[in-house]
Amino acid sequence: MFLTVPNDFTNWKKIANIDTSDEFEGVKVRIPTRFRLTLDKLYLNDEAHESQEEYEEDRAGAVANEHAINLQTTFKNIEHVWDENPTNYHNKDFMDNISLITINLGKIHEIWTKLCILVERAERREHALALDKAKFGDFLGIFIKHNHTVYDLNNLANPKIIKHQRPNEEQQNLGIINNILLSVTNLTKKSKELKDEELKIIGSDILESFKNYQDYITSLHFLFDRFKEYHQISSRDVSFLLSRIDKSNARLLQIKSKSDVKGSDVDRLITNIQMSHDEILKIITRIILIKKCVMNEYKMFQTTKYLVSEILQDFFTKRVKYSDLQHEALVKCFHDLQDLPLK
């Protein structure tokens, strides 16, 4: 019942599903009096009343009515133990709040999952674009290597010209063009190296941070799932136990009004009431602990909003850094290209 997200998320899911009987073993809590039944007033045994006549008088009087009202009030308090807000038990909105948070948490999880996918997809596209730019540089290098076989009149008019002959103006211009075009190939190589470095950091650190935050959302969702699952089970058990107490108490009052009542029947019903009451107190103890734990975990989860700040800040810091480096290389290449001979 805790919100811990290690790197090994699969094993965490196993740890997070510890049975509550083990999770809260040995932990004690003071149960408020509003959840406690006054058993001696429930079954009005012989130690509390010396005679059947006195029992009948009490049962018919105002005291009996008060006991009945208190009994129903306690039953109602127990039935609404899940709804009580841990910070103010007069507010019965806790389960409604859990349901609303669960719905909104699902929306946040869906949105963040799409963000993770988009970041990863964008990085793959930029990597593909960097590869295309690198290929552009490679092909441009091949063009530079072979363009002299076309851009020289001697190739057609005098192909056997002596190689060490002083180059003419056109040949010199071609050499200048090729040398400057080499800065473009250098730019594409540099751009590819910077993009590889950027993608390595974003893919390993930034994207991992995106997914870690996603794990926190998932873990809280699992926590609420376990919470609601135990809520259903315990509510069913409490309802059954309260019904058994009510029926046993009614049966006890019924048989004690008879003259031929058996002591063993009375003892059996009293034992049933006591055992049911003790079991209810155990369940209520666990409910209180679980609600307190969920509140603490939800309080811990509030700090994860600062992870969003760190993730986006780090993400764009890295993007700006490498964008600046890319821009510097691009500007240098641009200035080199201004020296290209045009005519």
Automatic annotation (TrEMBL):
Its main location: cytoplasm. Residues 94-342 form the Sorting nexin 8/Mvp1 BAR domain. GO terms for cellular component: cytosol; endosome; membrane. GO terms for biological process: protein targeting to vacuole; retrograde transport, endosome to Golgi. PANTHER family: SORTING NEXIN MVP1. Belongs to the sorting nexin family. This is BA75_00282T0. Keywords: Cytoplasm, Membrane, Protein transport, Transport. It holds the Pfam family Snx8_BAR_dom. GO terms for molecular function: phosphatidylinositol-3-phosphate binding. InterPro entries: SNX8/Mvp1, Snx8_BAR_dom. It is a peripheral membrane protein. It is found in: Cytoplasm; Membrane.
